[in-house]
Amino acid sequence: MSNSAYRYLGVWIWPDMGDYGASLTVKGIQRKICDPDLKLMIANAVGDDWKRRVASEGKFLRSISEDPHALGAIVYLLGGSDSLPELYDLQKAKVPIVFIDRQPPEGFEADYVGTDNAGSSKQAVRRLLELGHRRIGYVTNNDHVSSVKERLAGYRQALEQASIPFDSDLIFHYVTEPTDAVGDASDEVIDEIEALDDKPTALVCVNDATALCLHRALENRGYSIPADFSIVGFDGLLQWIPGGGYLTTACQAFERIGEIAAEILLSRISNGVPSTFRHVLLDAPLVDKGSIGRPRRNLLPTTTLSEEE
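-> structure tokens emitted (309 positions)
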């Protein structure tokens, strides 16, 4: 095949292809690429700090906008508004973009495929409320991105709908740096929990990685899961384990996200960029794998909350 016939789609993922969610997303994209001459250029951020990782994202996006062989891009955006100059360059070059997982920066119009983070987080909290929990903590991180904000919003909405006042003491921040040991942030969160007079009986975590670290750290301190603490994750990263693992979690449809993103991008390449863009949200159903149960402390009767209309 001559160089002039070479065509490809750029795919920017996070963290890398060794990640379960990223690999499934790419698998979904590949399933929809039926043209054997259309290639994928898959890349991910590099660097030992966040600034260098965002810079590598900018370099990748610039390379796509400057390459006439690039037909479009599927982007898991890290830099947010910091990457706007490169995104506008893609727009000027008429290279269609579909964002996945995280919404486009504010004011930048583009297609987006992701998870109903607020709705799925709300579903997880509602299940804990049905089991009798009323002191439900939320463990977030320091990522200032749409998915993180939406999951926290879903937690707050579920409490509000159950007429439970929001308590800022129950919001814990699992903050790590690239050089931190895995358990450091877990220990800090648990120290905060143990310092409370009225401790939570359940913890909803922003993602599975956080939930799994806390699960292990709590057990190392002698707590029983779910007897002492119920724990819920978000992602479904243990689905590859026979039996699905031991963490109750909201399972994202990574593969389907990749499929829909590819379908939209191929449509944009064939038909041009429309006047309106599509935002597709997929449910992340809660799958109970045994890390939640009725609270031992402050036990309340189980209840079934009425569904929203």
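Confidence is low (pLDDT under 50) at residues 178-183, 298-302.
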